[in-house]
Amino acid sequence: MSMRPYNASQVKLSRERMYEIIRRPLVTEKSTLGSQFGQVTFVVDLSASKPEIKVAVEQLFDRKVKAVNTLRQKGKVKRFRGRPGRRSDFKKAVVTFEDGQDVDVTQGV
Question: Measured between alpha carbons, how far is 94 from 98 in angstroms, rounded to an integer?
Fold first, then answer.
């Protein structure tokens, strides 16, 4: 079993892997409130670690990251035309940037 890097300085990512890790920004009321604290919320790959997310965001957006908090959102059971279905699980990353390093998520990468 391979050891996962605990430090962002140990992480080596290809450009392709960075785009796999950072799927899209998550724009909700709660994530928009985080923008006043220099935070942006992203939907990320389920297998991505915090150091990998930090390196990917720093290199894709060219900004300095202070902290990364992650959570796994379990998929809900919903009904479609009377038949039960299940939404897929996903992982969110709340990325806090250093002071003055905000990112405008309405623009592309």
Answer: 13
Contact 57, 63 (CB under 8 A): yes
Q: Which domains does the chain have, with CATH numbers?
A: 8-97 (3.30.70.330)
Predicted TM-score (pTM) of the model is: 0.84
| pLDDT above 80: residue 96 | yes
Overall size of the chain counted in residues = 109
Query: What region does 34 belong to: left with phi over 0, alpha with psi -120 to 50, or beta?
Result: alpha
Cα pseudo-dihedral 5, 71, 17, 53, rounded to 10: -60
Query: Which tokens hold the place of 40?
Result: 């942006």
The answer for 38, left when phi > 0, alpha when psi is -120 to 50, beta otherwise, is: left
Residues 54 and 69: beta-carbon distance below 8 Å: no
Q: Which H or E run includes 71?
A: strand 65-73
Beta-bridge mates of residue 84: 79
pLDDT band at 9 (very low <50, low <70, confident <90, very high): confident
